[in-house]
Give the backbone structure.
Amino acid sequence: MTRADTPTGPPPWRLLLGYVRPHRWALLAGAVLSLVTGATGLLLPLVARELIDDLSHDRAIASALLLMTALVVANATLGAIGSYVLRRTAESVVLGARRALSSYLLRLRVAAVDRSEPGDLMARITSDTTLLREVTTDSLVGLGTGGLTLVATVVMMGLVDPVLLGVTMAVVFGAGTVLGVIVPRINRASRQAQDAVGAMGASLERVLGALRTVKASGAEHREERTLHAAAEESWRQSVRAAKWSAAAGNTAGLAMQIAFITVLAVGGARVATGAIDIGTLVAFLLYVFYLMSPIQSVVGAITQYQAGAAALGRIQEALRLPAEPRSPAAALPADDAEPAALAFADVRFRYADDLPYVHHGVTFAVPPRGMTAFVGPSGAGKTTVFSLIERFYDPESGTITLDGRDLADWDLPRLRSAIGYVEQDAPVLSGSLRDNLLLGNAETDEDTITRVVKTTRLDGLVARLPDGLDTLVGHRGTKLSGGERQRVAIARALLRRPRLLLLDEATSQLDAVNEAALRDTVADVARTTTVLVVAHRLSTVTMADRIVVMDAGRVRAVGTHRELVTADPLYAELAATQFLATAD
Ligand SMILES: Nc1ncnc2c1ncn2[C@@H]1O[C@H](COP(=O)(O)OP(=O)(O)OP(=O)(O)O)[C@@H](O)[C@H]1O
Ligand SMILES: [Mg+2]
């Protein structure tokens, strides 16, 4: 996902305001506290002028000293509370963004995920949102309070001596021009640094997702280079951003030093000519000194905002990926729910506009109940049939109907709640065995679990495991064998009490005993449910009520094993080669 291939959305500051809006009162409270803190600081020079005045006229200074102490204490206390409130608000803004992004990512269309790198999406949720924290506190508040303090200070300076204010402003405007050149460079560098963090996330995910393969292929060094390259790129760009930020900060600092010296020189001359008195010069110099902090915070706000805008841009890109509509979770079918009828009519489908068609007009019908097997050479489009039924993708033309109703007219959660899907590579999520079994139906009672564990022949495994069902299975279930993962996936699908069971048989994961047992289970399920199975075994096809033979995105024949062996040459060949290998 790059900047080039996505349309531009609202400007980053609008987006930022959207995240900040729910917390505006807290933010305002923090900002007001910061302002009051600044105001207590602003009063100090005035009191100082009083003090010098009192001293030079031999008056008592106790009250002035007391007032100064009170101001200093108030300044420190209010400052601390203010910064706490602001930090807390900033964390809430980050939380808001993370929640919004995570909910959105879970609803992403499968096609959108196909096109993006999960690791990069992950970096957008974790790393980019973190940058919002600084933008909220430093940028928004810095700009607000710093700006107001700046204005207030300038007004006070104007009241004290307009001539010296003119001198100061001339210097400040000079610095502003330089900053105008520097700031866009910070933005570019920050964006590239965050993109590199995303690239690193993507590489990391790639390596950790297939660490065994990487090791077995001896590819550690190559992968290491890719990871390091991304890390170094992020470093390079961050250093570039740091360089420009430092330049910006220093320009501001330098401008203030120059202003200080100039004011000292011009002010000294004015004292000498009697235009102002020494107390006024001291007060003005103190204001110049006080100008430093709001100017630093305004410049900091602007530079910080550049990094934040880059992150906001990346977050916005993720939020523009196509997602499924948000709708409440649907209830699972009741125990006695009717099995579903399914039909494909002239379905044409390709995974993306620039990819060849995978389905060239697929047509078949499956009545309620019974078992339908899909067979065909690798790449024929069998798994794709299942992906279309689950509406992970939508067909380009043609219709798919469930219970006579077009899939497009089904409420998505309702549609999926009717289906139990066992994927070809039987993914298992990290967590406990129980988490995995109950993933699709958290409300299952213990008896049902026990029964399904038994029918899927997981009971032996559960008895063997140290913590039974609560044993952790490791990342992607690496602590389970391939066949065990397959059976966990089947058990998980059965526990959803599906009206339509989709079973994408793995080519060779189950041993003969377990296979026979599962065959009986599936045959049992098929009596009350519609079962669709992508079959790679003779035992499965001989048991099926009908077989759909697919080849290169078309249905070429439908029939029983006995019929097809004589009627369809491709099927006869498959039966003789592929299926025979599994027939023992
Ligand atoms: N997510 C995807 N994006 C793009 N192309 C895909 C995607 N998934 C599958 N394909 C392509 O679609 C075609 C059909 O794939 P499908 O998974 O449906 O085959 P299959 O019949 O299940 O094969 P097998 O028996 O090997 O599992 C293949 O050529 C594959 O390369
Ligand atoms: Mg497949």
